[in-house]
Amino acid sequence: MRDEIRSCPVFHGRERKLAEWGHRQTPAKETHKRSLAAHALLHLWPCVCLSLSSSSSKHLLLPSISFEDHQSICTPSQQPRGQADTMALDQYTYVFAIGTFFAMLDAYNNGANDVANAWATSVSSRSITYRQAMIFGTIFEMLGAITVGARTAETIKNGIIPNSAFNDNAGVQMLAFTCALAAASTWVMWCTRHSAHVSSTYSLISAVAGVGVATAGADKVQWGWNKGKGLGAIFAGLGMAPAISGCFGAIIFMLIKLVVHVRKNPVPWAVWTSPFFFLIAGTVCTLSIVYKGSPNLGLNKKPSWYIAAVTMGTGGGLAVVAALFFVPFVHAKVVKKDYTLKWWHFIQGPLLFKRPAPPDAEKAKVPNYAVVQDDEEDETLPTHESPKSSESGDEPLKKDTAVEIPREKTLAAAEIGEGPTYKQLQAEGEAKLHAKLMKKRGPLGWAMRTLRDNPMGPGQVYELHNMKIILKRIPAMIVVGALYGLHYDIHAAQTGVAGTPEGDRMKRVYGAAKKYPNEVEHTYSFVQIITACTASFAHGANDIGNSVGPWAVIYSAWSTGDAAAAKAPVPVWQLAVLSATISLGLITYGYNIMKVMGNKITYHSPSRGSSMEMGAAITVLVFSQFSLPVSTSMCITGATVGVGLCNGTLKAVNFQRVGLLVFSWIMTIPIAGTLGGVLMGLFLNAPHF
After folding, report:
1. How far apart are CA 643 and CA 247, in angstroms?
2. Is 355 among the domain residues?
3. Within 10 Å of residue 446's Cβ, how many Cβ atoms?
4. Dihedrals φ, ψ of 162, to 5°?
5. For the chain, does the N or the C end have fewer beta carbons within 10 angstroms?
6. Where does residue 358 rank: exposed (0-12), middle (13-18), buried (19+ CB within 10 A)?
7. How many CB atoms are located within 10 Å of the residue 250 CB?
8. Residue 236 — very low, low, confident or very high, per pLDDT cuts 50/70/90?
9. Same domain, yes or no: 395 and 473
């Protein structure tokens, strides 16, 4: 077909026009002046020439030009250089818009899935609430993304598919990474909806590899190590990251156990050794920023003495500040049990040592950090309302809002098939939660009542009466979607229903874990705030590259008209937008993943959670230094298992849940890769006029 087109005398002299059509890079003035008819004629010109040159053909043929034909006809040497090279691909604005949508959807799913898993440790340990996790997550995800995130983005966009595979075709490059984002975000969204935890990192990497195979063939994809940026290096992290983070987490927890937990008077030891965590957190985070730091901030060319001085100064300085302000505050709060102390009193520093404790300080209650199943305290059907949330001052439920049935009778009936099933028991528990939410004041209570009072009527959705109902329900659905997670009892969902197979299994796991005094755990609840923020910083530094790497390619190709250069910078505004979208995913839908993580794997407490998060954070930041996109989810899961095994028995870990997680990680690779490849193949080889 290509030879027939080139041999046609009518085609002579039009080759330059066809090249411009192939690259979609005509000068701006010509693009705006060209009419729709002329644009269509230019697109059909090869077909017309082929029809005229073929005497045996009686009909106008509309062949499909493959990517190989497109490459050979529209070579870079035939394209006019100069001004056209820097022109935006205005005709592909819709591709940029679609790519932007899927990049933000991928970031949203990343927040709802990966970030939720990262913060599940802190929430499961009861060190911070879900609302506090949202605030800290938003701040430190953005800091990590802007300061370090561009480095892993370079690997995502350049290390898997070389730019030469696109033969300088910016349009195909835009389409390729748009398909990769669409495939990865769709898969992770489906998994998040069904509370199936997967790795957003490996989902996108697999989708990019699949797109590369569909675009230029399997031989063009960097399957090997490729100086630490190929698929071989990336997938090596699939086994390395959980193992390394598990070792780090276990080492840190064993240090806590030997230095603090085995002491006769462990509380002072816990208080005075807490600056150690600030030292590690400050050193690791600072090193990740200044050593090969963000090129956007000019931190990638600093001398060695500068890196050493800033790293040691920041880590040591933070430890000194912790000793001067954090230690006196925690000492007054935990040792003296000064319940009148507010968080802003930490500014008094050493003066807090002289602050007298209240007369009734010994009667002050230390928060209970023990993991208990909801039914151990309430022998009725389960609710998703935690003891903390029950203190909100809302009107208590009336007796008729839930049917109170003795737990033993209900479960016995369920086992012999005469009563409700396990899923029905869970549904009844959620019904009790919804009944309580309807009693609340404020936007969420209004939204829940609106949805209850405006059910969909009979008939089709598009009928007039149903359309009116939908208009009433839409604002309420938006409010519920934004605020529902704030009131969801994650702890009750993690421990399972007592008496059921899952509940009995979790009870055995919790029974195999060593319990430590609440006063010690209360001390580490303050420490876990810094470790959680460090883990969030690490996630922003690593996982933001998932979404922003392909999006940066799409934006660069669209705005310049050239295939994105290997060293094309990642704009800071893209890092900021996607980090904010990640936080939105955590805020609105993170609870759906948190409820199947944390205590669902092993017994959590603040001292354990601090070790898990610090071990995972160190691993993620180390991998980020080598520009290796590693799954934060795998790191925190590996650290969780490592700390759980420190109990000295395999029974302290729920390996059924761990097995499901590993299975979902493995299945993500072929599924996401196939989705990306099929989607790209369909678009690239689809019939067209």
Report:
1. 8
2. no
3. 15
4. -70, 150
5. C
6. middle
7. 21
8. confident
9. yes
Within a domain: residue 213?
Answer: yes
Write the burial class of residue 344 (CB in 10 Å: 0-12 exposed, 13-18 middle, 19+ buried).
exposed
DSSP summary character for residue 649: S
270 Cβ contact list (under 8 Å, min separation 6): 260, 520, 523, 524, 607
Q: How far is CA 390 from its chain centroid?
A: 30
Is residue 550 domain-shared with residue 434, that is, in the same domain? no
Q: Is 388 helix (H, G, I), strand (E, B) or coil?
A: coil
474-506: per-residue pLDDT in tens?
A: 998 988 888 887 777 777 777 766 667 777 888
Look up residue 306 and give its two tokens. 């500068």
Domain that holds residue 450: 374-497
Evaluate if residue 407 carries a pLDDT over 60.
no
Question: Does the structure show a pLDDT above 60 at 296?
Answer: no
The Cα 516–Cα 513 span in angstroms is 10
Amino acid of residue 467:
M
CA–CA separation, 672 and 132 (whole Å): 33
Is residue 447, in this structure, part of any structural domain at all? yes
| Across 595-611, average pLDDT | 89
**Coil, helix or strand at residue 378:** coil
Max avg pLDDT among 36-50, 66-80, 154-168, 534-548 = 534-548
Query: What HEC string does 303-370 produce?
Result: CHHHHHHHHHHHHHHHHHHHHHHHHHHHHHHHHCCCCCCCHHHHHHHHHHHHCCCCCCHHHCCCCCCC
How far apart CA 609 and CA 525 sit, in angstroms, is 9
Residue type, position 269, single letter = W
What is the Cα–Cα distance from 385 to 173, expressed in whole angstroms?
50
Mean pLDDT, residues 646-667: 90
Question: What is the number of alpha carbons within 13 Å of residue 126 lying toward its C-beta?
Answer: 22
Please tell me whether residues 562 and 549 are part of one structural domain: yes
In terms of domains, do 551 and 627 share one?
yes
Q: What total of structural domains would you count in the chain?
A: 3
Which alpha helices (H) appear in 24-166, and where do they start and end? Answer: 28-33, 36-53, 67-73, 93-110, 116-124, 130-147, 149-158
Bridge partners of 396, per DSSP, are: none
Q: pLDDT category, 185, cuts 50, 70, 90?
A: very high
Alpha-carbon dihedral angle through residues 160, 164, 166, 167, given to the nearest 10 degrees: 180
Query: DSSP string of 181-240?
Result: HHHHHHHHHHHHHTT----HHHHHHHHHHHHHHHHH-GGGS--S-TTTTSHHHHHHHHHH
Q: Note the pLDDT of residue 374.
A: 54
Pairwise CA distance, residues 651 & 151, whole Å: 40
Task: Please state, in angstroms and rounded to a whole number, the distance separating the CA atoms of residues 193 and 117.
Answer: 14
How many Å apart are CA 396 and CA 375, to the nearest integer? 19
Q: Cα separation of 498 and 73, whole Å?
A: 69
Look at residue 167 in the predicted model and tell me its pLDDT: 81
CA distance 589 to 595: 11
Q: Crossing angle of helices 200-216/93-110, nearest 10°?
A: 150
Give the end of a domain, one of 67, 87, 107.
Answer: 87
DSSP states of 86-113 as a string?
G---GGGHHHHHHHHHHHHHHHHHHIII
